[in-house]
Amino acid sequence: MHIVAHRGYSALAPENTLPAFAAAVLGGATLIEFDVRTTADDVPVVIHDRTLDRTTSGSGHVWDLPYSEVAAADAGSWFSPAYAGTRVPTLAAVLELLADASLLLEIKPPATLPQVKTIVSLLDQYGLRERTIVQSFDPQIVRLVREVDPSVRRGLLRLRFEADTLDLADELDVVCLNPSTADVLGDPGTVTALVARGIDVMPWTANDIAEWGPLIRGGVAGLITDRVAELTGWLAH
Ligand code: G3P
Ligand code: CA
């Protein structure tokens, strides 16, 4: 059972920041999930939203901004004054911090082939390629990952199980398919079909303790949660 830290230990520290990733490791995460976007001057950075507005003191689309502007924003104060001055990390800084961990790296759209190449080459540079699954909601980005290097393990995210889910999983040859918790609980047949193909199912975002038991009994390989240490403690009971 993977304890997957969603954007790091995001219940305790600002999502997708170095403090959230350090806390995820200490909290017992066995996989650390985060989101990658690329700045206007081609620097991969770790941030969830399209814009800086919700989680930083800055504003504007990540892809319109030079890295210097993204780096100047405060990515901690919105969460708590305890994290004032925390920055949006580069992908390189995250990989350096997590060089001994296992990663679930989500590429957010839009992403081009050269941008995906840069991300995969950074995984190589930090010795993390074998310990990383690269996933996306966008099947075309998963195809780009395969084009860059078919040996990189791939995952597909789904907002909901749709009629083409199993066909897409087969076509993209993914190792995991990660839907919402509601779909796992509401559609056990699709979960069973995925597990029968050897594909791991790790639902997001499993923050409700009451759902942890039913999800695990439903056959999931891991839970993607903001509540990392709570899940670690709960699994130990
Ligand atoms: O990895 C699952 C989860 O991160 C997908 O949703 O919006 O948090 O990136 P989101
Ligand atoms: Ca994500």
From TrEMBL:
**InterPro entries, from UniProt?**
GP_PDE_dom, PLC-like_Pdiesterase_TIM-brl
**Biological process terms in GO annotation:** lipid metabolic process
Q: Which domain of life is it from?
A: Bacteria
Which stretches make up the GP-PDE domain? Answer: 1-235
Q: Which residues cross the membrane?
A: none
Q: One of this protein's Pfam families, by short name?
A: GDPD
Instruction: Mention one GO molecular function.
Output: phosphoric diester hydrolase activity
UniProt-listed PANTHER family: GLYCEROPHOSPHODIESTER PHOSPHODIESTERASE, GLYCEROPHOSPHORYL DIESTER PHOSPHODIESTERASE
**Identification of the protein by name:** Glycerophosphoryl diester phosphodiesterase
Its lineage reads: Bacteria, Bacillati, Actinomycetota, Actinomycetes, Micromonosporales
